[in-house]
From TrEMBL:
Pfam families xrefs: Molybdop_Fe4S4 (PF04879), Molybdopterin (PF00384), Molydop_binding (PF01568)
Protein name: Dimethyl sulfoxide reductase DmsA
Top-level class of the enzyme under EC nomenclature: oxidoreductase
PROSITE patterns: 4FE4S_MOW_BIS_MGD
Organism: Paludisphaera borealis
Location of the 4Fe-4S Mo/W bis-MGD-type domain: 6-63
Keywords carried by this UniProt record: Iron, Iron-sulfur, Metal-binding, Oxidoreductase
Length: 700
């Protein structure tokens, strides 16, 4: 069909961000010429964040990969020559066939992906079908959210239902608990501000770091990293001790209230809580009282706080608080971790049944171990990376890079840009941007289902993830009916559970965004019924006991904690947090000139006393190191952390960083207490002056 000369499309921001914005894109003569926030969308409300406001620069960047390539230099150098799609696809299928037919079998092939795009089609549909059908190893996608997800589910049940974000302006007390909402969930922040304006809500942030959100909050509570569960248990102590618990809600909507009450009253008095968390007793007392009495109160939990060994238990513990204070009664009240569980898309999109029984699963946090042959099962001989940049974002980076350097490893990377990971590829494939392919979106920060049309034709020879998997499946001789067109896939996905009733492809194409079949001011647990085995909020969890955990909330210290690991802390005394820089989305945009100019050079924010005792001054280049590796950053004495804590925001690309390594050269691949989650913020380091500091820093 010929395209009209000028048209306006409603596209969806594809980034891994809870806000899932609606973008209005004007296309003239086949080229996107304007992009802005959709004023009609209930959550986007007309604005995009600083990262995406100039997305057209990214789409039309001269640095986009435009055709397939094969490696001509040593691995890691990033030297390639152009090849045809035909040669690229033939090379991949020949290598995959050879590995699959070998004694190691198809499980020696490992897909590796995360959420470069959140679209249901391009992130988890034909890719999963292809690798399942091939019999490849499965990937456990644990790098971000798995500890908190499982901890939350133990408490409130599967589906992880959350307070309705659109009802947040009703709240009177809003807690950002380990959530840098201003930058990571900016449209929710604007609803929090509305709660402050409308009803005088108090905004609190619980964060070891004076984050941009903490700075703009009414109250900043600054615990030691990884001690949130102890803080939550201390709050419960005060709430029960002072008779502020919601006894009616506890009696009808929870199991284990008495057991939990006994535990917190005996084990978590304010003085002990203060000793573990470094939060003073007055703060604990006041915080507890206000959380209980300023109703509706909301706890916005985010994933930052669960990147510690005890992260799963911490989320599980904090998720008990709304039941103790009865805040689930009110629209907007309760807790919010993710709204994604409300989307009951049909699971046949990924066809798990195609994977042969007994196929191993590789935890993506252990990519280094997998490539080093340290995990059970056959060696990894072929790796297919898409929607992710593991050379920059994965923990224990030195080990990951050693693996990627293996001459006997065949690596395919499907990307839009020549990332750090691309430099290690044998075959590079060019990917489409969100304006060049069709997709269907849920969200993890609101309750709309959204449709993303292809507003422009693919640039150069770029192809979408699904188009590539369709082509590969064809060459492998897989059944065509497993790899249908995108419209068929969307119809299958929408043929899901009750929340999708009435949400059709036709409506989505016409309206762009359609609310899930949920009432306005949705309050998931107002009636006190939870989708757990007991039908109640499980303060005591029989399931956890069976899974080998303490059935009651408890405090699990970090792996690398000065209080519990004094020997390690004697060598590496500083707890290093590495949350994202506001200008970047993980490592996405870290190559964009505009975003880099805004972000500036890598920094390490330290307490004055920690710098002084090391002879470091503000602005100086430092080396941050531990036994796993090191990176360079400029010392920043910005009064954002307590002594003993430092912050290096990221995620910079290695090849664009001084010293060519980033913060993940120090982070650990140890797993969290539950869910096999990442522990990026559970990281002891030492800091010293960089010996060969350039007087003029490299321009990054
Ligand atoms: N601008 C921007 N937005 C993003 C992203 C991005 O990279 N850039 N990433 C997206 C993704 S993938 C995700 S998962 C979400 C994450 O969203 P958030 O969870 O908000 O992200 P973080 O900034 O990683 O962590 C939030 C805060 O947790 C704090 N924190 C660290 N350790 C602890 C602790 O032990 N206790 C407490 N209470 N706080 C702690 C950090 O200092 C940080 O300020 O954001 C999404 N949005
Ligand atoms: N130290 C430290 N490390 C962290 C974190 C941290 O806070 N601190 N955060 C962690 C978290 S929360 C997460 S979620 C992970 C994120 O890790 P990743 O998911 O790897 O995220 P990105 O760095 O954004 O890389 C996504 C890549 O996908 C590409 N891409 C985008 N769209 C498409 C597409 O349609 N097709 C293909 N083939 N590619 C596409 C983008 O160009 C980009 O390079 O990082 C984790 N790593
Ligand atoms: S706030 Fe999030 S969803 Fe909205 S434009 Fe920015 S990155 Fe995209
Ligand atoms: Mo994430």
């Amino acid at each position: 069909m010929p395209r009209p000369a000028s048209a306006v499309f409603k596209n969806v921001c594809p980034l891994d961000c809870p806000d899932t914005c609606s973008m209005k894109v004007t296309v003239r003569d086949g080229a996107a010429v304007e992009l802005k926030g959709d004023a009609e969308h209930p959550f986007t409300r007309g604005f995009l964040c600083q990262k995406m406001a100039r997305y057209l620069d990214r789409v039309y960047s001269p640095d986009r990969l435009m055709h397939p390539m094969k490696r001509v230099g040593p691995k890691g150098e990033g030297r390639f020559e152009r090849i045809s799609w035909d040669e690229a696809l033939a090379t991949i299928t020949e290598r995959f066939d050879a590995v699959a037919q070998s004694a190691d079998g198809p499980q020696a092939i490992l897909p590796y992906s995360y959420y470069g795009t959140m679209g249901k089609l391009q992130a988890s549909s034909l890719d999963r079908r292809f690798f399942h059908r091939l019999g490849a190893s499965k990937l456990d996608r644990t790098i971000c959210a798995s500890a908190g997800t499982i901890g939350y589910e133990y408490t409130v049940g599967p589906g992880r239902l959350s307070a309705d974000p659109l009802a947040v302006p009703n709240c009177r007390f809003v807690v950002n608990w380990g959530s840098n909402t201003v930058n990571t969930n900016s449209h929710l922040w604007s609803l929090m501000i509305e709660a402050r304006k409308r009803g005088g809500a108090t905004i609190v942030t619980v964060d070891p770091y004076l984050s941009p959100t903490a700075r703009r909050s009414d109250w900043h509570i600054q615990p030691r990293p990884g001690t949130d569960a102890a803080l939550a248990l201390g709050l419960m102590h005060v709430i029960w001790r002072d008779g502020l618990a919601d006894d009616d809600y506890l009696a009808r909507a929870t199991v284990g209230a008495e057991l939990l009450r006994d535990r917190v009253l005996s084990d978590y008095p304010p003085d002990r809580t203060a000793a573990i968390t470094s939060v003073n007793i007055d703060t604990i007392e006041t915080f507890a009282r206000r959380l209980a009495t300023d109703q509706p109160s909301l706890i916005r939990l985010n994933y930052g706080m669960q990147r510690h060994h005890g992260g799963g238990m911490a989320v599980r513990t904090i998720a008990c608080l709304p039941a103790v204070v009865g805040s689930w009664r009110h629209p907007g009240g309760g807790a919010m971790l993710s709204t994604s569980g409300a989307y009951d898309f049909d699971p046949r999109l990924t066809r798990p049944d195609l994977s042969p029984p007994g196929t191993r699963t590789v935890n993506m946090n252990q990519l280094g171990e997998a490539l080093a042959g340290e995990l059970p099962g056959p060696p990894v001989r072929a790796l297919y990376v898409y929607n992710s940049n593991p050379a920059a974002v994965a923990p224990n980076q030195a080990k990951v890079l050693r693996g990627l350097l293996r001459e006997d490893l065949f690596t395919v990377v499907h990307e839009l840009f020549a990332t750090d990971t691309v430099d290690y590829a044998d075959v590079v494939l060019p990917a489409t941007s969100q304006l060049e392919h069709v997709d269907l979106h849920g969200s993890y920060g609101h309750h709309e289902v959204m449709y993303n049309p292809a507003a422009i034709n693919p640039l150069g020879e770029c192809r979408s993830n699904n188009d590539v998997f369709r082509a590969l499946a064809g060459r492998m001789g897989f059944e065509p009916d497993i790899f249908p067109d995108d419209r068929t896939l969307m119809r299958e996905a929408l043929d899901g559970g009750p929340n999708l009733r009435g949400v059709t492809l036709e409506r989505l194409e016409a309206e762009g965004s359609v609310r899930l079949n949920l009432p306005e001011n949705y309050a998931p647990f107002a009636d006190g019924v939870f989708p757990t085995p007991s039908g109640k909020c499980e303060l005591y969890s029989e399931r956890m006991l069976r899974d080998g955990f303490d059935p009651l909330p408890t405090y699990i210290p970090p792996h690398e904690d000065p209080q519990t690991k004094p020997d390690l802390a004697a060598k590496f005394p500083i707890q290093l947090l590495s949350p994202p820089r506001p200008q970047f989305l993980n490592s996405t945009f870290a190559n964009s000139p505009r975003h880099r100019a805004g972000a500036g050079e890598p920094t390490i924010e330290m307490a004055d006393s920690d710098a002084r005792s090391r002879g470091l001054v503000d602005g100086q280049w430092a080396e941050v190191f531990n036994a796993r590796g090191s990176f360079r950053a400029r010392v920043s004495l910005s009064k954002t952390v307590r002594p003993g804590v430092a912050v290096a925001t990221g995620i910079y690309w290695n090849k664009l960083s001084p010293g060519r390594s980033n913060v993940n050269s120090t982070t650990s691949s140890a797993l969290s207490d539950m869910g096999g989650g990442a522990t990026f913020f559970d990281n002891l380091v030492e800091v010293r002056a960089a010996v060969d500091s350039p007087t003029e820093p490299p321009s990054v």
